[in-house]
Amino acid sequence: MLPADGSLLRIFVGESDRYEKQPLYEWVVVQAKTQGLAGATVLRGLMGFGANTRVIHSFKIERLSEDLPMIIELVDTTDKLETFLSFVEQHIHTGLVATMEKVQVRVYPGNKSTAG
């Protein structure tokens, strides 16, 4: 069970970023699952730019960008996320931006019994 005082790690990458031949965001989530983190979600941005490209990528009907921003959100304890981030940094040497913040974790487990 995840304690109420947890942390949120956000990793910002581009949609076209790769680790070997796999999308980087996919590789990060698979590694998070393998290492037993509590949860991960990938969000696709509609618009954004990075420090290296300075080009604004956006989703528009007339021009579909192929390198939209991707945000990977991971939730767990600070210690587990720090360990995970160190692991990721050993494999990804450029283009990675990460932020960490303290969060209050609330879990609302579903009712497993059926009403009726």
Topology:
Layout: E1 5-14, E2 18-19, E3 22-23, H1 24-34, E4 39-44, E5 47-48, E6 57-60, E7 63-64, E8 69-76, H2 78-91, E9 97-104
Antiparallel strand pairs: 1-8, 1-9, 2-3, 4-8, 5-6, 6-7
Which features does this protein show?
alpha+beta; Alpha-Beta Plaits; four-stranded antiparallel beta sheet; three-stranded antiparallel beta sheet; 2 helices; 38% strand
Overall description:
The chain is α+β, with helices and mostly antiparallel strands and 116 residues long. The chain has one domain (5-104): Alpha-Beta Plaits (2-Layer Sandwich). The protein is 22% helix and 38% strand. It has two helices and nine strands. The chain has a four-stranded antiparallel β-sheet with strand order 4-8-1-9. A hairpin with a 2-residue loop joins strand 2 (18-19) and strand 3 (22-23). It is globular, with a radius of gyration of 17 Å. The mean pLDDT is 85.
Mean pLDDT over all positions: 85
Q: According to CATH, what is the class?
A: Alpha Beta
* Principal-axis shape: globular
Q: Strand arrangement, largest sheet?
A: 4-8-1-9
β-strand percent reads 35-45%
Count of individual beta strands:
9
Task: Summarize the structure in short.
With 116 residues, the protein is an alpha+beta fold. The protein has helices spanning 24-34, 78-91, and strands at 5-14, 18-19, 22-23, 39-44, 47-48, 57-60, 63-64, 69-76, 97-104. The protein starts with a strand and ends in a 12-residue tail after the last strand.
